[in-house]
Amino acid sequence: MNRLGHRDVLSIRRTRGASVLLFITDRCPVGCAHCSVDSRPDSPRITDHALFASIVDRLAALPELRMVGVSGGEPFVERRALTLAVTRLAAAGKHVVLYTSGFWARSDHAPQWVHRVLEQSAAVYLSTDAHHVASQGPERFRNAARVIARHGLPIVVQAIDEGDTLDRTRESLAAALGPDWADHAELVPTHGLPHGRGAGLYAQPVRHAGRSFGPCDVVDAAVVRYDGRVTACCNESVIMGAGPAALRRDCADGAEVADAVTGFTDDPFFTALGSVGPGPLTALPGFGDLADRQFSSICGLCWTMTKRRSAGESDRMLAAIATLNS
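The structure corresponding to this sequence follows.
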């Protein structure tokens, strides 16, 4: 199985239609105060395993799909589904990238099923910050790093850049992997998201004129939820049901899921959002008044445009615009 570093993952994610994010569960046992999807120990999880298997099989059969990220929630709470997804996707030649808090690493000797999942994966994004440490202590993170490193898997550590979190994360990585930890892991600073429980902790950023927004870096990869919901991007609020209905489709089986993924990938409006961004689109008829309107995020502008847009309207123009940065 090929290994992927952070730059490799980003490159595939920015290749339109080459990846999806498989949102495998809402549930997470950690219960961080800043969770952007409001995951809890008692949140919903998979109940229809036949539907989930159908979704995985259809994703595995998409020829243009090269990479599948698996997240949640915490994907390792779904032993049966995670094992099935990783096994079938890897067998189909897809790169599988796991997103986890490492809660499963009660020691540095993980259960065999965890090792089997890691053996078939291409990379692991391992999250930590003050909220994770407050919930489960630093040892779970260190144990998880050791287990993952033994498989030779690239570790991408995502940590919110606040207070002394980055320094403490470097200390934990050194304690887990030794002074040459950077040979095994990359530390990627992130920022808290004002979604889910995070809405009470993180303020919206400074507002900007609509014309100033460039390309969206998350709209090139659709998100597929375990229950058949497909969204055009990984905005947490959209995944959970907020925002314009045109940003998501609720599907009854794997075939509909595959059609929805392809539909979002081929849609000229979403393609243009990823290519040139919504800023230049404010020059189009119907969007002109948004050029000087102030928005706190690119998502706010996207939502406004999505609500106004009529499917098929000016699609040829949008398709032409989308090629400008290709």
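DSSP finds 13 helices and eleven strands in the chain.
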